[in-house]
Amino acid sequence: MKKYYVSANTAEGFVNYIHSNVEELNQVIILKHPSHTLKTSIIHQMIDYYKSQREIEVLLSPLGKKYLDGVIIREKSLAIINDRISTPDLAGAIEIDCSLFMKHRPVLDTDLEEKFTYYNEEAYKNFATGLKVHDDLEKIYINEMDFERADELADDVIQEHVEKREKQRFESKVYHRLFGTNTVDGVVNEIPHLIENISTVYYIKGRAGTGKSTLMKKVSKACENKGYGVELYHCSFDPNSLDMVLVRELGLCIFDSTDPHEFFPNREGEKVIDVYEEAVTPGTDEKYESQINQVNREYKSYMKQGIVELKKAGEYLEKIEDKFGFSKKEITNISEFLKEQIIQK
Questions:
Q1: Count of other CB atoms within 10 angstroms of residue 125
Q2: Do 151 and 36 have their domain in common?
Q3: Is 214 domain-assigned?
Q4: Which InterPro entries match (predicted)?
Q5: Angle between helices 328-337 and 36-50 (to 10 degrees)
Q6: Is the pLDDT of residue 333 over 80?
Q7: Rounded to whole angstroms, how far apart are CA atoms 148 and 159?
Q8: Looking at the structure, do residues 98 and 151 belong to the same domain, yes or no?
Q9: What are phi and psi of 158, to 5 degrees?
Q10: 73 belongs to a structural domain
Q11: 280, 295, 317 — which closes off a domain?
């Protein structure tokens, strides 16, 4: 079972990468209903049904750990997703109106919905301001960078793990995902789960602006050029930046192992690449210490406030969810309908 995110709360607002993850599938089923609890319950039933038969991919939700965005069963070329992440470009998707199976029709509370939206938007504003402050931190290190050495670090990984591998006959498939995000539960990630069965894992250490994302993009491009499938995990703070590249066919993973998702190697095959040590002018931390500390404090204050706003949004989401009533039998009826009438055998 794989677990990851395809949507996130970021400095650019709500982002959604569902398309690249389901575009090759024969069947995409969209669960339509205002209750995320209802849709999550259906998804859980489908997971329980398929998990012993097939490899499944669980799409976690940025709404919090109580909710799910969907499930993908690639062996069946099937996805079942929450309508919150459906997009107009999901050609041929089947929409199931879950309210048709319910005794009580859903009634929306527009006041609560508006408050939920308002506090989410306030969170995004704080994250966006935090990103602008973070740019000041990047400028400090960019001015002290040896970019040629940084390029060499990427080339070393490519030469060791990619160049000597045979070019595949098929075009590379690239999946866009996230390994974590900002939620009502705080900042969460699934890194230990994602890397546990990968034979070679590079933990990238460094500072803001030291080229960690650029290094990963170069490794990703080299793998794509060889025709290997690539999982790109975007940064849930700045989605234009990469936080992880995972290439299962090569048993290779390279990820940004810095706060707030800092980890350290603990088994054979795991290595550290410290871009600060390798490509930044020695003494940079000390030279700009007071400036760095000031910018860090300011940036983190906006991030913390963003999480506070998400928690407020979460409180209103709970009030919204409390308005909807449904029984376990109704959930089972929908699940059985999907299995017997909709899902291709």
A1: 16
A2: no
A3: yes
A4: P-loop_NTPase
A5: 60
A6: yes
A7: 16
A8: no
A9: -65, -45
A10: yes
A11: 280
How open is the CA angle 64-263-124, to the nearest 5 degrees?
35
Query: Burial level of 163, CB count in 10 A (0-12/13-18/19+)?
Result: exposed
**Which domain, by its residues, includes 87?**
2-105+326-342
Residue 71 lies in a domain: yes
Indicate whether 262 and 332 sit together in one domain. Answer: no
Supply 125's token pair.
């504003």
Q: Do 259 and 330 share a structural domain?
A: no
Domain total in the chain: 2
Q: Are residues 167 and 271 in the same domain?
A: yes
pLDDT tens-digit series, residues 194-207: 999 999 999 999 99
| Model pLDDT for residues 211-252, shown as the tens digit of each residue | 999 999 999 999 999 999 999 999 999 999 999 999 999 999
Cα–Cα distance for residue pair 219/156, rounded to 1 Å:
10
Nearest CA among 144, 124, 164, 97 for reference residue 15: 124
Q: Which two tokens stand for residue 93?
A: 């998707």
Query: Do 150 and 92 belong to one domain?
Result: no
* Beta strands at 27-32 and 78-82: parallel, antiparallel or unpaired: parallel
Residue 286 belongs to some domain of the structure: no
How many whole angstroms separate alpha carbon 273 and alpha carbon 158? 13
> 126-147, pLDDT tens digit by residue?
999 999 999 999 999 999 999 9
DSSP letter string, 201-265: EEEEE--TTSSHHHHHHHHHHHHHHTT--EEEEE-SSSTTSEEEEEEGGGTEEEEE--TTS----
